Amino acid sequence: MSGPVRPVIGRDNAYFFEGTAKQELRIQSCNACGTLRHPPGPACLSCDAYDRGHVVARGEGTVYSFTVIHAPKLPGKELPLVVALLDLPEGVRMVAEVTGVPPEGEDALQIGERLVVDWNTIDEELTLPIWRRP
Amino acid sequence: MSLSGKAAIVGIGATEFSKESGRSELQLSVEATRDALQDAGLTPADVDGLTTFTMDTSSEIALARELGLGDLRFFSRINYGGGAACATIQQAAMAVATGVADVVVAYRGFNERSGQRFGQVQSWAAQQVNTNGIDNSWTYPLGLSTPAATVAMQARRYMHDYGVTSADFGAVAVADRRHAATNPAAFFYGKPITLEDHQASRMIADPLHLLDCCQESDGAVAIVVTSPERARDLPQPPVTIAAAAQGSAADQYVMTSYYRDEIGIPEMGVVAKDLWRQSGLTPADIDTAVLYDHFTPYVLMQLEELGFCVRGEAKDFVRDGAIELGGRLPINTHGGQLGEAYLHGMNGIAEGIRQVRGTSVNQVAGAAHVLVTAGTGVPTSGLVLSAP
């Protein structure tokens, strides 16, 4: 099968991929107390409620860490591939595929840099977030 | 109440370590178990317990059939990849200490180079219909899908926070390969490296170079555990299990515990706390250690979590040959998983046992207390092995 590894989608993470299909970066929220959470889960860690919802993120993040992958080959990806950990202003952290930055040199990605979300349409059934410099 | 001193290791066995064993994973485990029982002066008829990794492809009952075992009274498996290594010994020790079983063999065998290579993308891990599969939905589709890359993400932040350099990681690779160079069982026997070799090796997942990464290997290791009383009547000098602990920390994931305020490996701190509590020892009492080294950055982070130095100072601790033979804490005297072989940590336990017995090819004189750890970045485990 070509293309990237497909996510397993279940009740606890479906909202996220339903969001990406609409080009919305969603963060799980608690319908009882409003606490945000990513990665998500079936219960609120603040108030124990099971009533889960989501908000749409602003689509910005600050680089907390990153790696530039040179090997081995990855399904559906070109190497070298930059993957970062982003701190979102909403207060959650998210793994992010990054495009449009050189793998090394003076213009390479830096911890603390700000990125914005864009969309990587894989096929009719799967859209993934992909991040760029603003 | 403590597990300390309630069980002993009386036998170790292994196959050769290679890149292509040419036989089934089950056969490898059978060979290693027979070897371990012979070392222990026991026979298959003495074994009434078996324990291994959840990831092992050879079930306890399949191994039992091949060995001609009779009644099994204890069988168990531990999850989370290489984090299971020392926990299999803990399982065996708990079974023996409670009288659930008399003789337990912990085993692990695989064709991890000629068969399923863990260093490649394991797409099946992302397709599991369980919580691990859901967890991996946040990483694999985005290309973060190999152990090296998941560790690189931790390593970059660790370098940023504490001023650690790639050369600091290289000290671990140099030490491992120096020790492997004098170990005939090691794949890299006779092949030491320099820090320059490390720095010049190709990039795998920046900041990790090739020589920051362990090997992929075929082989098997088996370890025999019984009571201290029975151990006294057996041929090998018994090795006391002074402590055996597992650890998982808050907001734990498999290789991607990225959502803690400060990422790192606090799960090894959980293990450390219990190892010191059970054994009554401190880091100063440890003569040599086998620190799980699938990737070099986690060796530095382990030194800190285990209490050999404070947070951020492992880069200073490993300088000037301190972790090599003759240094203040020689580590991975068999060559580690970078130098000897990657057997999911089980070969490191065997080396810890040899150090207490006094039979390592790179013996630390008078080693009385040896620390061994299991896989990092995952829920993990550790042991303190001592002379009786």
Automatic annotation (TrEMBL), chain B:
Q: Which SUPFAM superfamilies match?
A: Thiolase-like
GO molecular-function term, one example from the UniProt record:
acyltransferase activity, transferring groups other than amino-acyl groups
- InterPro entries recorded: Thiolase, Thiolase-like, Thiolase_C_2, Thiolase_N
Q: Where is the Thiolase N-terminal domain?
A: 9-227
Residue ranges of domain Thiolase C-terminal in the record: 271-379
Q: Check the record and name the CDD domains matching this protein.
A: SCP-x_thiolase
Which residues does UniProt call coiled coil? Answer: none
Pfam families, sorted: Thiolase_C_1, Thiolase_N
Protein's recorded name: Lipid-transfer protein
What species is given as this protein's source? Nocardioides luteus
